[in-house]
Design goal:
By secondary structure, the chain is of the alpha/beta class. It has helices at 18-31, 38-42, 49-59, 66-84, 96-105, 119-125, 149-158, 172-180, 191-194, 209-217; strands spanning 5-8, 110-113, 134-136, 165-169, 184-188, 199-201. It folds into two domains: 5-16 and 91-217, HAD superfamily/HAD-like (Rossmann fold), CATH 3.40.50; 18-84, DNA polymerase, domain 1, CATH 1.10.150.240. It contains ten helices and six strands, in the order E-H-H-H-H-H-E-H-E-H-E-H-E-H-E-H. The chain has a six-stranded parallel sheet with strand order 3-2-1-4-5-6. The longest helix has 19 residues, at 66-84. 36% of the residues are buried.
């Protein structure tokens, strides 16, 4: 039996929590009289909380004290957590459970590789925690994607060499991280955005069992 390591990002791959980040950041920006659009939110995908707030302040030409900065970051996270505490299984993106079940049935090790510090809580909320052999999240890493640290830790925990790992990602930084770890990168999203991934699918409904079998056996 061939063993590969399958590593999944969380936001935008398994569930779409981007909308909750957007709502929380928008609330924060508006409280500072800064306009905040969906387009700007796109630029914050895969970016740390500190860098995200710095960008928002720059867009609004605002400067604030370090103390206020820390307060705002805490407030944003509280708002975000209150949104995700309402999540349930209906939020899982199409066919994700089908792909996970296929990999489990074929005894393939599975890990999460996410920058989110709330990853474990989210997986619990949507009842997918037990599908993952390992979880590597924002609490376990010191370097953000495009640094490959998160995926290299996941590979090590799965006991699979990086070149035998397959990563599902929806962000440019995430695909870059997978590529620099010499893993097989699979982009979930638009080809024009994620063109540097080895394979790109709009979503998991396009991923066939035959394709997964090829990944396992080649």
């Amino acid at each position: 039996m061939n063993k590969k390591g399958f590593i999944f990002d969380l936001d935008g791959v398994i569930v779409d929590t981007a909308k909750y980040h957007f709502l929380a950041w928008k609330k924060l920006a508006n409280s500072l009289d800064i306009d905040f659009t969906e387009e700007e939110n796109e630029q914050l995908k895969g970016v740390s909380r500190v860098k995200s707030l710095e960008k928002i302040l720059a867009w609004g030409n605002k400067t604030i004290s370090e103390e206020n900065f820390q307060d705002l970051m805490g407030k944003k996270n509280e708002d975000y957590l209150s949104y995700i505490s309402e999540m349930d299984e209906s939020e899982i993106l199409p066919d994700v459970p089908k792909v996970l079940d296929f990999l489990i049935k074929n005894q393939q090790p599975i890990s999460l590789g996410s920058a989110s510090k709330n990853a474990r809580a989210i997986l619990e909320r949507v009842s997918l925690r037990k599908q993952f052999d390992q979880i590597v999240d924002g609490n376990d890493v010191s370097k953000a994607k495009p640094d490959p640290e998160v995926f290299l830790i996941a590979a090590k925990l799965l006991n699979v060499s990086p070149k035998n790992c397959i990563v599902f990602e929806d962000s440019v930084a995430g695909v870059e991280a997978a590529n620099s770890a010499e893993m097989i990168s699979i982009g979930i999203g638009k080809k024009e955005v994620l063109g540097h991934a080895k394979y790109v699918f709009n979503d998991f409904t396009e991923i066939s069992e035959a394709f997964l079998n090829d990944l396992i056996n080649n």
